[in-house]
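Can anyone check this?
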Amino acid sequence: MAMIYLYEGKEAIFYRYEDIVLPLMASYGGKLISRTRIVRRTEDDPDEIHVISFDSLDGFEQYNADPVRQQHAVLHSQSVRKTVILDCENVNP
């Protein structure tokens, strides 16, 4: 799970970045399970929460090092204030 905190007013830059990098996940055994925008939020809340899954930690690390991601890293740095990654697993209810 990724909790993403954006700089105010930089949403369009972030969405442009996401449009470029999210399709790359499949090449590394990853998939976006859900992408949720927080509607009523405080300053302490993230702007978006992404639930993602990768077949392996190695795939996740390779995705993060992808040359296309690196080429567009400026879009990320211009729009993302902070990202918190949580390593989660499903629990049966």
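Reply from J.R.: I decoded it. Strands lie at 2-6, 30-37, 48-54, 80-85.
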